[in-house]
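Review box. Two proteins, two foldings.
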Amino acid sequence: MKETPIFLKATAGMRVQPVSVRNAIMSEIRGMLRDSGFLFKTDSQARVISGEEEGVYGWIGVNLAKGTLKSGKPYNLKGTWGAMDLGGASTQITFLPPIPDMLSNSYNLQLGTEVQENLYTHSFLYYGINEATRRIGQVTLYNATGISPSDPTPVPANTVVVHPCLLTGYT
């Protein structure tokens, strides 16, 4: 195991954390990886990645699975699939644009020495399913009780709120 490197790429669930919380969690994880028996040399082997990186990694995964990433000369990314990833805390969309635009959401993809293309990728932080569910719950509670998420007033213990998106009887 000592010859096997280990990497961790944390995504949007960590990006939404306050910096102090994120740093504490990543420090703990790095310590565990150092003690794991795997080859863990630098802190950069365990890091929080950008939303754009998350989108590109998803795009690579989709196109590897579909067999549309070809190696050798000449390479051609035409015919690759776009990828949309609805995660817990964010949503990413990534594709090879028909006409590259260097000014907006361009990500230079380098695969080995042969493939270099500009992909379109955009990450929508706070637009994952968990974040949407949380915000819907906050709005529903506010509409039923008038208590804002930022209000320190506790919701009375026996309060029953009908949630428009959940099954009847769900508590």
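Next protein.
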Amino acid sequence: MTVLFRCQFGSHLYGTNTPESDLDYKTVVLPSAEQVLLGRAHFNKTQNTKADSTAKNTSDDVDNETFSIGEYLKLLQQGQTVALDMLFAMQYPAVVQEVHPLWEELYRNRHRLLSKNAKSFIGYCFSQSAKYGVKGSRMGAVERMLRVLEGAPDTSLVGECLPGFVTAMEGETYFKVNRVSITPRNGEKPYEQTFMEIVGRKFPVTATIMHTRNAIQKIYNEYGHRARQAKENQGIDWKALSHAIRVCGEATELLETGYITFPLEPSLRRFVLDVKQGKLPFDEVQERLEAMMDRVTEAEQSSMLPNEPDREWIQYWLLNAHRNVVLEDWEMTCSG
């Protein structure tokens, strides 16, 4: 295997590390000829130095996650946060450990790799906001959706009632219907599927009304419980909230500029670190996260990024990379 890219990750990449922070590394490799020919070219492996996997990481612990280039490109096309962070880590030399010419070529062609498909970013932000009951507007949207669903037969499919739902939820900011590109894991061609979305949670139109209503009821119950805890400053995972804030900032920058800055821009970095260390009142964090999520939603709608990455170019590039590995191995065997 050939290392294409390796960098420090996590808080060291974001600029939010403290003396207690552990070391995280991400590595992308080009598989060997044997792995390519035997169909083992897609993989993801994790190694760590921690003896007790249940214990919390310390500054002495080192984690390294390795992706094959094929697996990495799949995650990148899905808009996964980890893959996008690794791509833009290139412009922060302090964290870069190794860079291969092939990775430099990918980075130069990053405009072909990017899209406004930031669902991974946005989904994480919304899930954290739901977990902690960020403002009542989202809770109200969920409550309204539940009332609408109560008027539909349990055994009907969401798609059969969708036109009525759209009419009943008209004007609701946190309700929408989207067609999403799905990439099957079995290697089949991507296809599009329609989802009904409420406060960032997606529900396929092929699901039954009963299943969907039960799922949305759980969201509503979760809002109430977490909101009460938050007001009492209990049960708050400050680190998870700091991640949501960081991801909101990254997603907005990506959608607005086609770029993500590392380390994080100073004011965002300070805010993330303050939240991570529990230095700010929850109400203040709650309000700012709400505003950041609204901006992400607006950025997604107005972004000049393409709707989809250039999948044809990516497939061609990956095919060439794998083919060259096999040909080079063959030439070495023949010359030997």
